[in-house]
Each structure stands twice: as structure tokens, then as C-alpha cells.
Amino acid sequence: MRGGTLRGAMDRPPQQWLPPVPAYDPGPPPAPQPQPQPQREGLRRLFGPLLVAGAFLLKFGKGLFVVVKGAKFLTTSASMLVSVAAYALIWGWKFGVGFVALLFVHEMGHAVQMRREGIKVGGMAFIPFMGAVVWSKQLEGNAAAEARVGLAGPVIGSLAAALCLVPYAMTGDDFWRALAFVGFFLNLFNLLPVTPLDGGRAFSALTPWMWFVGLFLVVVLVFTFPSPILILIALFAAFDVYRRWKARNAPGGRDYYRVTKRQRAGIALVYVTLLVSLAVGMDATFLERDFDDV
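User: That's the sequence. What structure does it adopt?
Assistant: C-alpha cells below.
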């Protein structure tokens, strides 16, 4: 056993001695570098251009203000495009363009009559799902002038809605019929006898107590068809009716609401004609639709 062990040891190749390799000491790990947070990067990208634009406006703001003030059409066109986009998201771009065009014609009726009454028109702005508004100085004169301005919008707007039936008769496309129906409805709704709707302005020259009838009808609509827009209209109407009713017996208010019988008769004739015509137009253009047609 010893001989075998010795012989086996002699048969193995001699081992070389190597100095021990020192262990690699990398030292302490480097401190982690702070990485920009995605949220801060997003804020920087968002507000960076705004800061640059702000600095630009501070330097050239006065000149730009003069330019924008002289180009009031920018407000109208920008708000018009926003309204078209808002309506297009729900009903498609064709309806969005058509509906905003009807709103524009309606408001232009107010603007044209304002100029005829000697009122300086400030501009027009569109509010998605609320309609549009024409900015102007306070109406001078009396309630008859206010009634003429109020009824001018539905008169011109109703004619524009009726014109939609021309391409419908030529093409048979129900889109034009539906657009005419919406135009008739828009102008009929505005004839509710409550301020600040057009019908309330007309009744300023007829009998102001009808404002309360109109306010009651708006409240009924709120409970029948709950909608934030109707609630907002009801709140505005309640405030405006209260303000007007309180001021009607003031010295200036008595002069404002003093209207001749001839003026009152003409305004009543236009109002009733619009009511009947728009109701007939809505009945003639009504389409039976369901959600499968959308």
C-alpha cells in the first residue's frame, strides 16, 4: 500500500508554486446620480414654452394687445372652431359645421339690428353646448329697441334653418332635414319668454309679468329633462328676472318700459308668427330616429 501510494505520488506532475493573487478591491460604489423624474421632465416640457411665451409677451405685449384688439375676428373664429370640434366629437363634423353656422347666422341677426339701433357691437363668441353671444355696450333707448334686437336673431335664424330644406329637396339627404329641424328648435327655444333669452327681451316691450311664466317653463324643463345647461340657464334667468322686475318701477325703468301701442302690436305679431312658423317647421322636418341610426 505504501509503495503504491509513493509511486502514485511520483507519477503526478510536479506542482508549481504561484504567489497568491491579491483580491480586487473596487472600493466603495459610486454614489448614484440623481435621475430626472418623469413628472418633472413633463412639467418642464409643458411650462418651458409657456415661460418663453410669457417673456415674449412681457416684452412685446403692448403691441400684441393692440393687434388683437383690432382683430376681433380672432375671438370669433377661434371660439367657432372650438365649438365645431366639440359638436363634432358627438355628432360628427358635418353636423358640427352646420350647427355652428346656424348659430352664427342667428347671432348675426342680433348684431345687424344692434347696428341699426345705433349700438356698437364688440364681437361674437361661441360657447360649446351653450350657443353664442354678441358682446355690445348697454342698449340705449327703450324696451321696444331691445325687443327688436331680441327678435332679429330668431327671424334671421329661422330663415337660415328653412334654407337647409333647399339642399334636402335637391339631394334627399336626411342630414339637411335634420339640420333644419335643429335650427327650428334652436330658435323656438330662444323664444321662451324669460330673460336673457330672446323671447324675454321681446316681452320686455309687451308685458314683463310674462317673465315669471317663462321662468316657470324653464324650471319645468329642468325637472323634466335634467341638464347642467338648463340648470345654468334657469339660474341666469332667475337672477335677471329679479333684477329687471325690481328696477322696472324706478324712474329710469318707467321710461325704459314705456312703449306705444303700435310698437307693442308689431312686436306681438312678429313673436306669434315666429312661434307658429317654427312649430310648423319642426313638425314638418321631424325624423324618427334611434341610436342605431347614429
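Residues 141-294 form one domain.
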